[in-house]
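Subject line: Sequence and fold of a protein, written as structure tokens
Enclosed: The protein record, placed directly beneath this head.
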Amino acid sequence: MVAIPITRPRSLVVGSPEYFKGRSKPIVPLDLVQHRCIEMRMANGRSIAGSSSAGVKRTCSSCRQSDADATGLILAAAHSGAALAYIGEYSPAAHMAAGRLIPVLEEWCPAYPGLSIFSQRRHMPAKLRAFIGPIREQAV
């Protein structure tokens, strides 16, 4: 069986321009200790972030003052300037494009394995390739 990767998501640390007024932007993960952070949690209490992101996840988890299980709440908190948000990159994309949220520590937030389709064939059939192509384009 061959795994055909569809997405390579990553989690980002984002904050609003209002949050950064009078505060320095974090440059390395350890700087997060000086900031208020909020991150996504599942119902069982585990973090939803994929990988350790080279120390960002561990640092954000150790300094976080709150967590939530709803993306909308996390984005609202970040947008209002209440805290930095550690969240999957797809959720704040429109806010970042509009300048309402600013990503920080991007070089410390690598992509992690995301969705894959598994095929029993080594070479992808044309129909499967036609199906996957538009999905990959939308995911990137």
